[in-house]
Amino acid sequence: MQSIDEIKLFETxxxxxxxxxxxxxxxAEITLCNxxxxxxxxxxxxxxxxxxxxxxxIPGRFxxxxxxxxxxxxxxPKSRPMGIGLDLFAVKKDGTEFPVEISLGNYQVEHNKYVxxxxxxxTLRKKAEDSIIQLNAELEKKVEERTTSLQHIxxxxxxxxxxxxxxxxxxxxxxxxxxxLGELKSRFVSVAxxxxxxxxxxxxxxxxxxxxxxxxxDQPKREKHIQRIISSxxxxxxxxxxxxxxxxxxxxxxxxxxxxxxxxxxVNETITEMNAICKNGQQIKYTHTGKTDAExxxxxxxxxxxxxxxxxxxxxxxxxxxxxxxxxxxxxIQLRIKDSGIGISKEDQEHxxxxxxxxxxxxxxxxxxxxxxxxxxxxxLMNGTITCNSKLEEGTEFRITFKHNTDL
Length: 408
Prior knowledge:
Beta-Lactamase, 5-stranded mixed sheet, extended
């Protein structure tokens, strides 16, 4: 027999689980339901469900079909992993339907069979997936429209293209651009679906947990999950901003707006901001030489600085050192950021500034592969050149040199 402590432990785990749990007997009647499941389905008390058929949680349009499925399952119950089978839907007390993932387990007490259903509401994930599918459809349509337009042009100019080598080169370039757009679309959808999943899952789980904390004593827990939601939303915003920035750069809609600003002051302020995300024991050392005034696009320069510094923090270990050096000379402005991180192989350095490229030793670290591409483009717009010097496990150094306005 189970001890009182074991029973209390079971009740604590059961009622505080952050997933809906419903227990059904061999007659398909609900016998147990934890608090999380009650909140999912909009019920106030477990007595509202106990003794009722499991079909009360199934949309009416599926109930008849579900009765056959559950009778078959109860006849030969087997554990079923999450997500196996067709798209599933559940219904709340007020009649609202929502998509779910369900895994099933079973056990037997004496001669009585029981089935345990673990229920997850995937509404937010479905919305995110639908948004990506819609975006994919729009990109497909855009490619189709451009391809149709290109084919029309080819039909009109076919005779002229055959006569001149210049027209032939122009056509090949256009076709290559279309192919590149198609590849960019596929890569975008792949990266977006992967990078959105983690922050969206964090938002979903924290939102579920917030429903549990209703008392004043739970305020620290609420604040913790609210901060997780805010951080995840900010991450999604940063990812979207990277995608938008790349699009604007490719379309030539971004131009450098030069102005004079205090370079040393901006770097110090940025370091202060980034100290908040430093790992335990990490130190940022900054050195400046020469004048402090520089003429660049301050917004672009700040973006470059934030990206390189955040990468240095992300890829460096705890207690690691990050060195930042700036210099304003007669002929140029220099920015150097050196970390003590995982480094980059020579093979990967050849593709470092390409869109969506991720080094092989950084595949499992959060990122879109757009940051360094944007940095290189911003540097180019400000008459700058960027170089990378790195060895695996020995850190990485980025150097950017901007041509300086000597009239300052």
